[in-house]
Each structure stands twice: as structure tokens, then as C-alpha cells.
Design goal:
Blueprint lengths: L3 H11 L7 E2 L8 H11 L6 H4 L6 H7 L10 E6 L39 E2 L15 H13 L12 H45 L7 H11 L6 H7 L4 H14 L4 H18 L38 H11 L15 E6 L8 H13 L4 E4 L9 H13 L3 E5 L29 E7 L21 E4 L3 E5 L3 E5 L6 H14 L5 H10 L7 E3 L7 E3 L12 H12 L4
Parallel strand pairs: 2-4, 2-5, 3-4, 5-6, 6-7, 7-8
Antiparallel strand pairs: 1-10, 9-10, 11-12
């Protein structure tokens, strides 16, 4: 998974420095009734456009009209992601338990190849019982591994069977060069601002004894005391420490939301790890796991899917947020209401950086073999070293009637042109290898030109539909609730809808469920700004294959007809 900090900061900048990561602790003191009212207003994504004038997924509309009981109450959704907060109050009773395994007896009781896998598996767990925090990016791995065969060679020297790899190697080299330069410059800026912060903070006490300054006051002060017109980059490179430089650095901090020294230091630490681990050709994250990432096998990793180790950064937040959207308890009158009553099977493959294709492959196969009906994959990357492994796993899931739901990504790109993995395409990036894969983009609460989230990927062929993903209120690690944004939170909406369909109509095939979700979505007949463009506008329907937004009410109505052989 791309560094969560980097994605958050990127979107933070896109939204004009408005934070999209907010913990909401007011529920701690609110009464149950006020909690429900507050959370009902926050859960906009479950509303109905016709009833509420909010472009949600019409979940509340369906629940308020449904009088029937589900036929299948045992649906399992695998969430292939980071670790998870198993102790979160709103997920209690909604985590999958492997009833064929005896806890902590160090024996593979069910003989599935995984010892003591009570709640799932950590494919990035280490032999010592901890976990990997930093993965290299896939393009870094390609430059390091494939460079042994392709470095300094020309296309005419390459065998035709290796030509695809050679071209990917060349693309990875360009990617690596660009990103390495970018992040090193970013780190240099953070080092400079961190060094200046104490002196700048102390100096500003002379002008603002109470520390009550904001951008406007600092800008006015800067214009009065600057001794040159250097841009921030030039001041950084020259290591300027004059009064104008001090004030300018604090303005930059305010613009970036870096309002404390601790926050600056934490961001610098994370960025330092990106430069020296994610982008390091010599870093090997698999040493502590003890496996070979180029050989498929069972049993590597460990069973600790919710692992907290002193001195090691925890990585439980993303999965906890995704899982809450799907399965947070609907009946306990606390926190939020998830979409559906299911069991979550947490499978860990996502440290900071890019997931290994081996881990993606083995997690999908684990999920299928252990009863998952739906698999959520809220992660992505620009390269894939073992695409054939992942494609075979997709086909394996389809053979077992399992649906795969993937987040389209947050790069503001047309993924009909810019490759995004994993996907359901063959090496030609045209032919679909399976029919059980749904790729989901993100919409906002705003109808009109800003309907599509400005970070969301799109594609008339390779994004299937959209679902709410912006400012989504959900569960967070550490037993909190928070608001966050990303296509990561659109995918679980579709997972929840699919689970509802199968709960009431269990005989439907995976192909039928996919078609139902695609065909039953809501139409919005207006133009929207294309993400990443200079305010270019197109009809919303042109940004995905279905041209629609997930609608649970419509999906359940259509599923009823399809189950009776009526279309």
C-alpha cells in the first residue's frame, strides 16, 4: 500500500489544505440518542438521492422497506489490507473465526497450510512474531531484480518472450528516477523546516506573545521583514536563517498543516523511511519473513493479524476503516452502522509501499479456500512483477463463485491509459481474464461538476462504477471513529452490497451478482470535472463502464427479479 501518510498529504494539498483525516471523539460524552443523530448525519453515503437529495447508495431506503429475513447469515468477506484493530467496539462479533483450528496449539489442525490461523493470516508477519512496516515500491524491485538481465541492453538484444519485461523494466527505471528525485527533495525541505521550527517559533513570540497568529498576520510580517524575494526552494538550498526565512518557513508549515514540531518530526521520519526503505534498491523486506517472494508457497508469515509491538509503528488503521464500512454493528447503538451483518476475514499484505504479487496471490487463494464469498482489495500499484500469478488467482476465485472488488486508485488518472494493478486484464491490457472483478471509483457528496472526487482514478473501460468515497465516517484503529477519503472506501460499499444480495438470493452466480450491481446503479445526467484535468468537463457516464453509482435498493430489486429468472 502506498504510504498512507503520502496519500493523505497529497489529497490534503488537492483540497486546499483542508484536513481529510479527522478523529471524532464527541461520541464519548454524547447520549445514545444524540450519537445516533450525529452519526446519521455523518453517514451520508447510506442516504438516497430521491428521498434525501444526497447521492448515497440508498441503503437506508432498502432497510426501511425490507420486511424479509436473509436466507444466508454466514457470508464471509475477506479484507486483504493492513492489520486490523480486532478490539474495536463496533467490530465485536463481526470477525471471522476459523472453527476448525485450535488456538495457540502450534498445530495446523485443519491442515490448510497455516498454523493457528484463528482470525486470518498475516502474510507480512515475520519469523520472530512481529511484522513488516515498509515494503519497497514494485518499480524499485523491478529495477533491482530485472536489471540483472536488462541493464545497458537495447531492445534488439532482447528475446521476443522477454520483450514485455524489458519494456516494463525501462518504464520502471524512469519511474524510479522521477520518484527518487521527488522524495529526496521533499525530505530535504522537511529537514530544513524542522531545523528552523524552534528558532522560528521562539522568534515569533516577540511579535505575538500569545502565539495568536495565522496566515494573514504572518504574510504581512513577512512582507515587512523579508530581505529578498527568494522562493522557498531557494531558501532551503541556501540554508537561509534570516528573519524573513524564519517567517516564510512558518507560513509554509501553516499551508501544509504542519503546526507543531512533533508533527514535522513525525512526517520527516516517515518520509525518511520512504527514501531509505521504499526507494532503496538494497533494502530487502523479506529477510525478516524468511521466504522467497518469487516462489509461491503456503505457511510463511504468521497468525498475528492485529499485532502491536513496542517500538514498531502500528499499521492497523486502514483495514479497520474498510471493515467498519462493511460490517460495523448495526444494532448496538454505538458508533456507526455498517452495510451488512457479515464476518470479516482480515488478511494482512499491506505495509507502507507496494504489495508483493506473491502475497496478493496467496491471500486470494487463502480467502477462497477458507470460505470467503467476497474479497475486498483496497490497494494498488503501477507495476506487477508476477501478473500471471494474480490473474490465475482471480480465475481460481471465479471458479469458486467468489467476487473480487478493487479500489480504482487515487492518482487522478485515466486507467484505460495509465496501468493500475491488480486488474482483470491480460498482458495486452485489453482482454479481460475473468468476470468476477469490479473496479470502483469515488464520488463526493456534491452533485454537479465536483461530483467525482478530484483524487479518483477513472476509465470508460477499466473502472466499472462509482461509489461514495469522500468524507466517509467509519471506525478507526484505537477504538475511535473518524472521517477519511479515498477509493479505498468506495470498494467496501460494493462488497457490502454484494453480501446483501447473496444473503437474500444465495443461488445467484458471481457473474450475475456483478451484472446486477453494474446494471442497477443510479444515473446522474450532468457534466463533471475530470480528475487531474484543468477543469475539463465530460458527462459523468463517460468516466466508467456502467456510467453509474452503486445503488443498493435498486440492486436488491433487480436481484429479486434475476433470482426468479426475470430481467
Amino acid at each position: 500500500m502506498k504510504s498512507y501518510y503520502v496519500i493523505i498529504l497529497f489529497v490534503f494539498l488537492l483540497l486546499g489544505c483542508k484536513s481529510i483525516k479527522e478523529s471524532n471523539n464527541s461520541t464519548a460524552t454524547a447520549t445514545n440518542s444524540s450519537k445516533e443523530l450525529q452519526n446519521s448525519l455523518l453517514i451520508w453515503h447510506q442516504k438516497d438521492y430521491q428521498q434525501d437529495n444526497i447521492p448515497g447508495i440508498s441503503l437506508e431506503k432498502w432497510y426501511s422497506s425490507n420486511k424479509k429475513k436473509p436466507k444466508n447469515k454466514n457470508i464471509i468477506i475477506a479484507v486483504i489490507d493492513t492489520q486490523i484493530d480486532l478490539k474495536h467496539e463496533d467490530l465485536q462479533g463481526h470477525i471471522w473465526t476459523n472453527k476448525k483450528e485450535i488456538a495457540n496449539n502450534h498445530i495446523d489442525d485443519d491442515k490448510n497450510g497455516y498454523i493457528d490461523d484463528i482470525n486470518g493470516w498475516s502474510f507480512t508477519g515475520t519469523r520472530s512474531g512481529t511484522y513488516v512496516v515498509w515494503n519497497r515500491y514494485e518499480y524499485v524491485r523491478i529495477v533491482e531484480e530485472w536489471g540483472k538481465y536488462f541493464k545497458d541492453k537495447t531492445e534488439s538484444q532482447i528475446d521476443s518472450k522477454d520483450l514485455w519485461k524489458f519494456k516494463e523494466y525501462q518504464r520502471a527505471q524512469e519511474f524510479f528516477k522521477e520518484k527518487n528525485t521527488y522524495y529526496k527533495r521533499w525530505l530535504k525541505s522537511l529537514n530544513y523546516k524542522t531545523a528552523l521550527y524552534p528558532k522560528a517559533k521562539d522568534t515569533l513570540k516577540y511579535f505575538f506573545p500569545k502565539g495568536d497568529y495565522a496566515y494573514a498576520q504572518l504574510d504581512s510580517l513577512y512582507k515587512k521583514y523579508k530581505i529578498n524575494d527568494k522562493e522557498f526552494k531557494q531558501r532551503r538550498d541556501d540554508d537561509d536563517r534570516d528573519l524573513g526565512a524564519l517567517i516564510g518557513s512558518m507560513i509554509a508549515n501553516i499551508n501544509m498543516g504542519q503546526n507543531t514540531l512533533e508533527k514535522l518530526q513525525d512526517e520527516r521520519t516517515q518520509l525518511d523511511s520512504i527514501v531509505n526503505k521504499n526507494l532503496n534498491l538494497d533494502y530487502n523486506e523479506r529477510l525478516s519473513i524468511g521466504d522467497n517472494p518469487n516462489i509461491l508457497e503456503k505457511g510463511y508469515g504468521n497468525n498475528k493479524v492485529s499485532n502491536t509491538v513496542k517500538g514498531i509503528r502500528t499499521i492497523q488503521d486502514h483495514n479497520t476503516m474498510v471493515s467498519g464500512i462493511i460490517a460495523a454493528n448495526r444494532n448496538n447503538n454505538i458508533g456507526i452502522k455498517g452495510i451488512v451483518d457479515v464476518k470479516i476475514m482480515p488478511l494482512n499484505i499491506s505495509p507502507s509501499g507496494d504489495e508483493h504479487d506473491k502475497d496478493i496471490t496467496m491471500a486470494i487463494r487463502y480467502a477462497v479456500d477458507n470460505g470467503a464469498k467476497i474479497i475486498n482489495m483496497s490497494f494498488g500499484k503501477e507495476f506487477s512483477m508476477h501478473k500471471d500469478w494474480v490473474s490465475d488467482a482471480f480465475k481460481y476465485a471465479e471458479e469458486h463463485n467468489v467476487l473480487l472488488v478493487h479500489s480504482a486508485g487515487n492518482e487522478r488518472s485515466d486507467i484505460d491509459k495509465a496501468t493500475n494493478y491488480p486488474n482483470d486484464l491480460d498482458y495486452d491490457n485489453i482482454t479481460e481474464v475473468c468476470h468476477n472483478f469490479i473496479n470502483v471509483g469515488s464520488i463526493s457528496q456534491k452533485t454537479g461538476e465536483k461530483f467525482v472526487s478530484d483524487y479518483s482514478n477513472y476509465g470508460k473501460q477499466n473502472v466499472d462504477l462509482f461509489a461514495p468515497g469522500e468524507n466517509i465516517y467509519t471506525t478507526g484503529a484505537g477504538n475511535i471513529y473518524k472521517t477519511d477519503s479515498g477509493t479505498s472506501f468506495s470498494a467496501p460499499m460494493v462488497c457490502g452490497a454484494a453480501a446483501l444480495i447473496w444473503s437474500y438470493y444465495p443461488k445467484l452466480t458471481v457473474k450475475e451478482v456483478k451484472e446486477i450491481i453494474m446494471d442497477s446503479g443510479s444515473n446522474y445526467d450532468f457534466e463533471v470535472i475530470v480528475p487531474g484535468s484543468d477543469n475539463k468537463k465530460v458527462l459523468f457516464s463517460e468516466l466508467s463502464k456502467s456510467g453509474k453509482v452503486l445503488n443498493v435498493y435498486n440492486a436488491m430489486e433487480l436481484a429479486k427479479k434475476v433470482s426468479k429468472g426475470v430481467r
